[in-house]
């Protein structure tokens, strides 16, 4: 898949976006209630309003949005056509912005219901995605994930048409993240990178993105979580997250994400937290099928012992993941989230139903395997 987005990055980059606003008649600015209150966001909105004929401001995108949330947004909009969509926020906001870019382009040929049924869009309006968390990589993926409450799961809408024209990586937008958000979104980025690198459909292009992203992440994640003033670490995490999204666009995630979807869809556990819980047991499960790739990943760690054998490195990498989740103070057991073993049958069936991701697992996975992994989390 060809990603042709123009990347703008660095501290202060938001002050240089005026060129995007020239001759725009209607700009849709999409964000959420937290991001709208940041001074840097208010300054950007003011710049847009001063340079555009009409601005529609949407600031109520919820976490883990559902298809009904997007429908409600479309119904509330007084003007349905836009020639520029700006999304500023985490993965939920960016996913909605991507959907709106194809649903609100002039003479749009498609509805949300058709997208959910698998029909593909053919055009979008110009779009700018500005992530405020370093984890989802939504700005680099052709995916938009929506909750489907009636099925207690999530569904991905996938089309390269939704890839943005511009991506803006502004580290100052991530400095207000609470530690637990920075930690869980960072683990989400790690899951994207390591899953794409080890997927059955991995390839050299996706692998390159994954390796670049993991090196940046291993050197910056804990610094970024511990010190909100470390702009270099914040920018490195934004790049790691972007690389994770680009890796998804060329390969795909697998077991961690398949098993985390039901946790988010039914129990509304934040996506990064669900991934953090599943990271270690899923990596333990696939380790023997990807020893060489785990060894290659281990070599990127700041304190890697390069004299270990590939087998030893693969075990050491899993242990590194285990200790990392602990150091970041993220949950490692489902009972910490008030989920009981009574829910195991649902969880197993729902995870196996995410066939798009289960098919990417680098070794055969059975119903008993998935049950065993979930059981290990109690």
CATH H level, superfamily name of the largest domain: Dehydroquinate synthase-like - alpha domain
Low-confidence stretches: none
| Main sheet: strands, sense, barrel | 6 strands, parallel
Helix content: 40-55%
Q: If you compute it from the alpha carbons, what radius of gyration comes out, rounded to the nearest whole angstrom? A: 20 Å
Q: Give the DSSP E fraction (strand runs of 2 or more residues).
A: 5-15%
Mean pLDDT: 94
Number of E-state strands = 8
Sequence of strands across the biggest β-sheet: 1-8-5-4-2-3
* CATH architecture tag of the largest domain: Up-down Bundle
Explain this structure to me?
By secondary structure, this protein is of the alpha/beta class. It has 2 domains: 6-174, Rossmann fold; 179-375, Up-down Bundle (Dehydroquinate synthase-like, alpha domain), CATH 1.20.1090. Helix content is 48%, strand content 11%. It is built from 14 helices and 8 strands. It has a 6-stranded parallel β-sheet, sandwiched between helices. A two-stranded antiparallel ribbon has the order 6-7. Strand 2, helix 1 (39-50) and strand 3 form a beta-alpha-beta unit. Helix 5 runs parallel beside helix 9 (271-286). The longest helix is centred in the middle third of the chain and has 23 residues, at 204-226. The chain is globular.
């Amino acid at each position: 898949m060809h990603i042709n987005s123009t990347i703008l990055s660095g501290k202060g980059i938001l002050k240089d976006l005026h060129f995007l606003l020239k001759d725009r008649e209607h700009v849709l600015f999409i964000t959420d209630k937290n991001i709208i209150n940041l001074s840097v966001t208010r300054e950007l909105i003011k710049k847009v309003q001063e340079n555009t004929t009409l601005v529609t401001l949407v600031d109520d995108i919820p976490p883990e949005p559902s298809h009904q949330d997007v429908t409600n947004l479309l119904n509330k909009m007084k003007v349905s056509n836009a020639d520029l969509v700006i999304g500023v926020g985490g993965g939920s906001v960016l996913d909605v912005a991507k959907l709106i870019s194809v649903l609100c382009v002039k003479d749009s040929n498609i509805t949300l219901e058709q997208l959910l049924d698998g029909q593909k869009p053919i055009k979008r309006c110009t779009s700018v995605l500005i992530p405020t968390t370093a984890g989802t990589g939504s700005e680099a993926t052709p995916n938009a994930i929506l909750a489907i409450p009636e099925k207690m799961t999530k569904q991905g809408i996938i089309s390269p048409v939704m890839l943005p024209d511009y991506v803006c990586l502004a580290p100052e937008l991530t400095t207000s993240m609470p530690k637990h958000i920075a930690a869980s979104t960072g683990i989400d980025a790690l899951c994207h990178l390591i899953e794409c690198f080890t997927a059955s459909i991995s390839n050299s292009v996706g692998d390159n993105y994954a390796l670049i992203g993991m090196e940046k992440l291993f050197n910056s994640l804990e610094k970024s979580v511990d010190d909100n003033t470390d702009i270099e670490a914040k920018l490195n995490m934004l790049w790691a997250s972007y690389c994770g999204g680009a890796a998804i666009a060329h390969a795909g995630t697998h077991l961690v994400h398949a098993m985390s979807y039901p946790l988010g869809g039914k129990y509304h556990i934040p996506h990064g937290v669900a991934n953090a819980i599943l990271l270690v047991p899923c990596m333990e499960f696939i380790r023997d099928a990807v020893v060489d790739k785990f060894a290659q990943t281990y070599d990127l760690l700041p304190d890697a012992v390069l004299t270990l054998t590939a087998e030893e490195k693969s075990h050491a990498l899993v242990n590194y993941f285990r200790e990392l989740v602990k150091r970041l103070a993220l949950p490692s057991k489902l009972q910490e989230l008030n989920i009981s073993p009574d829910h195991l049958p649902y969880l197993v069936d729902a995870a196996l139903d995410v066939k798009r991701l289960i098919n990417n697992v680098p070794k055969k996975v059975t119903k008993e395997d998935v049950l065993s992994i979930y059981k290990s989390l109690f």
